[in-house]
Please model this.
Amino acid sequence: MVVQNRHFDPLAVIIHTVQARTAAAIVFATTATLMTTAAGCWRDTHPTTAVVEPVAPELPSSTLPHVAGGEFGTFDAFSRFTKATVIPNRNGVAYGWRIHVPCKKPQLIDIKETLRMPAPGDWHVDQRTRISADRTTITTSETLPCDDDGWIHHRWFASPGDPDGTYIVTVEVDGYTPVRFRPRFSHP
Model:
């Protein structure tokens, strides 16, 4: 894993927001048409996987408010985010999360992130990051800038020694209930 701090390009955020809203409108129209046509005859036999969830009961319950939203996915060469639950486990692929909180640029938000792999990983980290003795878990604390739309982001880069399987990423945003992502990594 290679951690990279990055600053946000407001134009890229605007372009991504317009693209996401356009895609959402198309999906809504398509879904409404399919639901009307099927008239309740279709049932999904495969449960869906949550992309973001409040932290499970193994941690103490919290009275803190929940974040406004969170997504896991990949970042392209222009730092554009694409939501995904399956991440290509290929050297150099940028992946990570974004979380929506009520903040505005240039506000800074403190986070603590724990990333757990299903087997030991190939870690390339800086001094702010701790690696577990079994090399399956890292914990990093950072202060991240909020963008104009109230999102904070963090990304990593896949390394050749990273294992396939489900990763568990827990993000503790200062003042909010922790958020957990469970992306699946798979070699293409």
In short: Helices lie at 10-38. The chain has one helix and 14 strands. The longest strand covers residues 108-116. The longest helix spans residues 10-38.
